[in-house]
Amino acid sequence: MTPSTDLESRTYFSTLDGALADFELPLGAVDKARAAVRALDFEHVFIPDSRDHVALERAGQTTPIAYITRTFVAIHPPDGVRDWVQIAEPESVPPAPADAGSRSGIRRASPRRRPAAEPARAQAVATCPSCYTNLPSTGVCDWCG
């Protein structure tokens, strides 16, 4: 996990697909990015507030093992050979939004919550004052009469 001082400048995602959807890669690039990082062992997926890449971290590590940009994937395994995979032609990728680094333009990933429905309330049932059982709709206790 990353130091707590860095947590405020990142948006974490529970899945790679969620991060790639938020990053708005073209569909063909999404498939290529998934294929490029398929063999990597990562636990954390985040997009920094600069929104210039998606990063993948291993558990307990502070350095990402892969960066996914709009045109390529840079793979930096700790014990392996570094690699670079092109996922889109630079001309075919639309530029990042102009407000990519501003706080107002950043969308936070969060689960969509439905408004809480009001819980159903049981209607109060009259009780017999002597035996404390629920009274039937007639209002006369079946036990006490």
What can you see in these coordinates?
With 145 residues, the chain is an alpha+beta fold. 13% of the residues lie in helices and 17% in strands. It is built from two helices and six strands, in the order E-H-H-E-E-E-E-E. Strands 1-2-3-4-5-6 form a six-stranded antiparallel beta sheet, with helices on one face. A hairpin with a 3-residue loop joins strand 4 (66-68) and strand 5 (72-75). The longest helix has 11 residues, at 27-37. The termini are far apart.
What is this structure's SSE topology?
Elements lengths: L9 E4 L2 H8 L3 H11 L6 E5 L5 E4 L8 E3 L3 E4 L7 E4 L59
Number of helix segments?
2
Specify the biggest β-sheet: 6 strands, antiparallel
Radius of gyration: 28 Å
Helix and strand element order: EHHEEEEE
**Beta-strand percentage range:** 15-25%
Q: How many strand units?
A: 6
Helix content: 10-25%
Strand order of the largest sheet: 1-2-3-4-5-6
Instruction: Determine the N-to-C terminus distance.
Output: 70 Å
